[in-house]
Structures are given as C-alpha cells and as structure tokens.
C-alpha cells in the first residue's frame, strides 16, 4: 500500500466519528502535523499512529499493515544505521548516510529528515570531540518536531518518538561533557522516569533502562556520589544480563572501569579492562580487535544510542 493510506484511514475514521483535527491531535501532536498525516505529506511514527487510533477509539489497527515496501526498507536502514553507530562500524554508517543524502528531497517527511540528521550528528561525534555546540545542535534537531520545549525544566510531555528520545539523551550527554553534571543528571532522570512509567511493555524497555542507568552512573561518579553511581551501574548491568546485548555490555563495562578508577580500585579497573579486551577479541578476532577496542575506549563518557 502507499504511505498515503495512513492518512486515508485517520481522516475517514475521524470524519465518521464527527471529531475535529484539534480534538484528535490534542496531547499527541500539533494540528498541523495531523493535517500533514491526513494529506499524505507526513508519515506518523508507530507510537504516534497508535495513540491517534486509540484517541479515535480504534486501537486494533496494525501499523505494519500500512507499510509500503519502501517504508519497510527505510525502517530497516534506520535500524541498521543505529546498530552501526553503536558498534563502531563507522564505514557502514557512512554508507547509509550517503544513501540517505542521495535519495533525500525537499518534500521529505520531517521526522525522516530529523532521524538522518541525528544519525549524521552521532557519526561526526565519532571523529570530532564534542564541544558546547553539541547540545545546541541536538535541541535544534529536536525543535523540528517540538517547537516549544525547555530541556532544563520539568517536562510535561512523555510521548516522545524514538528520534526525540535519542536527541534528549544526547543533549544530556552534552551537559555531561560540558561538566554540567546536575543538568545532565536531570535530563537522564526524567528520561528514566518516562521509561519506567510508559515503557515496561515495550521490547526496548530494558535497553533504554540500561543506557540511562549507565549515563546516570557517570554523572553521579563525576559528582563524587559513588554509592549512587554504583547503584545505577548495577541496575544497568542487571538489565543487560536479562536482555542481552554485547555492545551495550561493553559500553557499561567501560563505565564501570571509570568508576573503579575514580574509587581508587585499581585491580577492579584492570579486571574490567581485560574483560573488555577479551570480549572484543572473541567477537571480532585478533585482526580487528585492536581497532574495535580503541573505538570503545576512546569514546567520551556516557552512552549515546538507546
């Protein structure tokens, strides 16, 4: 089916129910975004589509049913891009970014553009040490879909898309790298709270929790609150043991190594570094292990992709 089918379904049900666009959009998206979905110029995210259908009293519609083959391919590329960036396969990430730039056009869905510009920002961070402008760039991309939002206040929204959550997490890392640890912890704690309230039935619940626990462990470690740091680190590694995920486990081990160094536990730091080295060697072989190990150890503190 063509992507416009999303809009046809939403519009036809809304009109049949006698609801206005304002009534359907309230608390989910802007009225203008809903209008774009209905006329086919914007494809809703899975989460947003499900919320709209719940508002319309029709929660049984399957998002996947309306995927065109082209949209399914783009979703596959989006997933692969994040996996490549997370695992340090920068050449593959670059290939996917070039594919997007080649196919992008001025009429592209704003959420699609937001995702790929976010992926490009994360790709550049691998090669360039992030500066103060990193957080500002994250929020500039975030504003493509949320025009009025204050990062440092208590958030009223909790229905963020995958890309918006990714950007908020990286804005928090921006604070962390600027040594503004309280602001960073504030961002991660709000994301953690949202995940606990709304994410427990989602397949990525434990991964998000592990990432946010790791980032909170870094913040509290830098603030000298080592017992809090150890508590969040233990929660994060516990999630990975339940869910799996070797790359995420490596990233958490790197955080644990840093905490052990900070606490003066040299033997523990050495053990965690050796464990990282052994895992990397087992996964990628001796030929590639050095490059992979260098990638993981040279990254700035924190975990970008959740």
Number of H- or I-type helical stretches? 14
What percentage of the residues does DSSP assign to strands (E)?
Answer: under 5%
In helices, the fraction of residues equals over 70%
Uncertain spans, ≥5 residues at pLDDT below 50?
none
Q: How would a crystallographer describe the biggest sheet? A: none
Find the CATH superfamily of the largest domain: Tetratricopeptide repeat domain
Question: What pattern of helices and strands is seen along the backbone?
Answer: HHHHHHHHHHHHHH
Structural class category: mainly alpha
> What would CATH call the class of the largest domain?
Mainly Alpha
- And the CATH topology of the largest domain? Serine Threonine Protein Phosphatase 5, Tetratricopeptide repeat
Q: Return the average pLDDT rounded to an integer.
A: 82
Q: Can you tell me the overall shape?
A: globular
**Termini separation:** 31 Å
Whole-number tally of structural domains: 3
Radius of gyration: 21 Å
Q: How many individual β-strands?
A: 0
The CATH architecture of the largest domain comes to: Alpha Horseshoe
Domain HTH cro/C1-type: 10-62
Organism: Candidatus Pullilachnospira gallistercoris
GO molecular function: DNA binding
InterPro entries: Cro/C1-type_HTH, HTH-type_regulator_Rgg, Lambda_DNA-bd_dom_sf, TPR-like_helical_dom_sf
């Amino acid at each position: 089916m063509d992507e416009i089918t999303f809009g046809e379904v939403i519009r036809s049900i809304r009109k049949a129910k006698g609801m206005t666009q304002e009534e359907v959009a309230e608390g989910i998206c802007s009225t203008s975004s809903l209008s774009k979905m209905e006329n086919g110029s914007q494809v809703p995210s899975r989460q947003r589509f499900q919320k709209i259908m719940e508002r319309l009293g029709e929660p049984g519609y399957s998002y996947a049913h309306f995927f065109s083959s082209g949209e399914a391919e783009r979703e596959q590329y989006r997933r692969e891009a994040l996996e490549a960036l997370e695992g340090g396969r920068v050449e593959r990430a670059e290939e996917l970014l070039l594919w997007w730039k080649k196919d992008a056009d001025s009429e592209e869905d704003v959420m699609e553009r937001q995702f790929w510009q976010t992926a490009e920002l994360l790709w550049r961070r691998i090669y360039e040490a992030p500066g103060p402008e990193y957080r500002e760039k994250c929020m500039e991309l975030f504003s493509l879909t949320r025009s009025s939002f204050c990062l440092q206040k208590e958030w009223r929204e909790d229905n963020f898309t995958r890309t918006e959550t990714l950007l908020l997490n990286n804005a928090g890392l921006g604070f962390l790298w600027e040594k503004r640890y309280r602001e960073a912890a504030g961002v991660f704690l709000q994301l953690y709270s949202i995940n606990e309230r709304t994410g427990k039935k989602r397949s990525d619940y434990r991964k998000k929790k592990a990432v946010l626990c790791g980032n909170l462990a870094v913040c509290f470690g830098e603030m000298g609150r080592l017992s809090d740091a150890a508590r969040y680190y233990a929660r994060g590694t516990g999630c990975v043991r339940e869910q799996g995920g070797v790359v995420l486990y490596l990233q958490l081990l790197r955080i644990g190594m840093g905490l052990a160094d900070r606490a003066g536990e040299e033997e523990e730091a050495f053990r965690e570094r050796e464990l990282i080295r052994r895992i990397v060697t087992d996964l990628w072989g001796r030929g590639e292990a050095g490059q992979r190990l260098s990638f993981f150890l040279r990254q700035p503190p924190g975990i970008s992709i959740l």
